[in-house]
Specification:
It is built from eight helices and seven strands, in the order βαβαβαβββαβαααα. The protein has 211 residues and is of the alpha+beta class. The chain is elongated and about 55 Å long. The two termini are 29 Å apart.
């Protein structure tokens, strides 16, 4: 039987998870000997909100990922309580991360995001969104939609990692200072989701849920 685990990550780690097809976590750096998935969403949200989102190295973003791990494999590792009863995590040695990734059943899901004020998002280096931060990207897509829905669909396909990583920020941010009210924001998000599905992208966009 599979066990659901959670992993709070920053902007850059999320981009690396995308590069692995949302099917595994990137290898640890030399100064990171342990990989720490946690046992419940409450703990994961606390870390993402209070630790990752204010942190420059995390890109001023904290995301909660969720995934299923084969229970037989996970039984090789003991859970550790490191605070209150909610603070339960597993300690996976970095040398075991490849086998841990192999025990993940299905795709890693992106559940929620927390963002600090300096958040710039994933910035692509090609096509129409090249060099633009997350706010400028959304404004550009909104303006482009008025003139060419085809161009927007092509942009979504070409910069799918950017769209995926910045999606939860777009879903939360107030764009009214840029002439985009909440209804217009939701309308564009709906259009972008249609473009995503039109392009038959294997990884689904995150579900927008309340925090």
């Amino acid at each position: 039987m599979a066990t659901t685990l959670f992993r709070p990550v920053g902007l850059h780690e999320l981009a690396l998870i995308w590069d692995k097809g949302m099917r595994g976590f990137p290898q640890r750096l030399p100064h990171q000997p342990i990989f720490y998935p946690v046992a419940n969403t409450t703990y994961a949200r606390q870390i993402a909100r209070d630790w990752n989102s204010p942190d420059e190295e995390s890109g001023f973003a904290g995301f909660v990922t969720a995934f299923e791990v084969d229970g037989g494999y996970l039984s090789n590792f003991e859970p550790h309580t490191v605070g209150s009863s909610k603070h339960v995590e597993y300690w996976i040695p970095a040398d075991n991360l490849s086998s841990f990734n192999g025990a993940i059943d299905g795709l890693i899901r992106l559940e929620i995001g927390f963002f600090g004020a300096p958040f710039a998002g994933h910035v692509p280096d090609a096509f129409g969104l090249k060099g633009k931060n997350a706010i400028a990207q959304f404004v550009a897509l909104y303006k482009s939609w008025e003139y060419s829905t085809f161009d927007v669909a092509c942009e979504v396909s070409a910069n799918r990692k950017t769209v995926f990583v910045n999606w939860l920020f777009w879903s939360q941010h107030d764009f009214s200072n840029f002439g985009i009210n909440q209804e217009q924001r939701e309308m564009l998000l709906g259009h972008l989701k249609q473009c995503w599905e039109f392009n038959h992208i294997e990884v689904p966009l995150p579900q927008t849920i309340s925090r």
